Prior knowledge:
- By secondary structure, the protein is an alpha/beta fold.
- Helix content is 41%, strand content 9%.
- The protein contains 16 helices and ten strands.
- The strands form three sheets. A six-stranded parallel sheet has the order 3-4-5-6-7-8.
- Strand 1 (48-49) and strand 2 form a beta hairpin.
- Helix 3 (118-135) packs parallel to helix 4 (152-161), helix 4 packs across helix 6 and helix 7 (234-248) packs across helix 8 (276-291).
- The longest helix is centred in the middle third of the chain and has 24 residues, at 186-209.
- The protein starts with a helix and ends with a helix.
Amino acid sequence: MNFERVKEKLNILADAAKYDVSCSSSGSDRKNKNKGLGDASKMGICHSYTEDGRCVSLLKILLTNHCIFDCAYCVTRKSNDVKRAAFKIQEVVDLTINFYRRNYIEGLFLSSGIFKSPDHTMERLIAVAKKLREEENFNGYIHLKSIPGCSDDLMYEAGLYADRLSVNIEVPTISGLKLLAPDKKHEDFTKPMLKVKNELIRYKNERKIIKSTPKYAPAGQSTQMIIGATGESDKDIMFSATHYYKNYNMKRVYYSGYVPVAEDNRLPAIGSQVPMLRENRLYQTDWLLRFYGFAVNEIVNDTHPNLDVDIDPKLSWALRNMQYFPVDVNKADKRMLVRIPGLGLRSVGKILQARKFRKLNWDHLKKIGVALNRAKYFMICDSTNWQAKDLEADKIKGMILQTSSGKFRNQYSNQLSLFTSN
Length: 422
């Protein structure tokens, strides 16, 4: 092996892979067997955090950055003047094993530019995973990026060796895809998604009858959307994400702020700010939809197509729906408790348990961990010491902003002055 050449490839192809953020491993339960290497049980990957607080990582690379497509948003598009490289299958296998033995990684995240054809590229990705599993007896986490347009047979085979599969939808809408990637078809993305969904359903059904049924993509599938490359509203993005959750059983949809990488009149100019705050708000909305029981049209709709910059989406919803507040924390059901700004799922669970034994007051709620700086405007409890009465939504918003802090605060500090100048 030419170590200098492999090192050069690693620098090129690891750098090219950094734009893909969909590399969590939640849900995988592949366990070590036959005294093999690695164990993906209860692990998160790529500097994710496990349930017990551990931070773990993976080798995140492209098989190659050669590509036959010319997608405007992609750094590896064929018209871009970048240094190209390609790993041999055995080189990726050796890197993974050597990095694992040195405790650098706990798994592999492998993607690729599309060279020759989707099927040819997917075959090589599968070959890496197959060698790791069968020849190296590697039981660590493997995430393979599914290649849009590849065959159903290859998607099935990939799921036998990978813990998670994902096809990046990239652009949230069909019109945006036609604008930035005219060579690609929307069905090329959704076809492999549908195959994975159906195979996961089949596996679960067969597993009930035959316990020895081979596992199929135990961590499910995910996808990623680029945010800010085209003119989609937050409503367009979240309705699209909801569609993929509902129709393709996505484990996660990831939102990646567009990083300007080329001069193109269809895209934001080089040097434009990456929409990190917008990305953060979309993740918060995604969380509300998946875990808090919100419907997408409650948060974004025709009259409110974009998320607020200065406040999180749950607080925004509450301020627009003051008719539901204040909520009595000693009587309300879980559905309404989780909608109170400042109350998370853990706090709600503690409240439901604690109120079985006594009525709760402000001191109890503070000890539970409720963020009273915002929650107090939206609830009442067993106390008359302080209650917000007859406050307008704008007034509440201003009072909360005056006492709030966060890493994105400087991005909307000018808007805050509108509330504090009087």
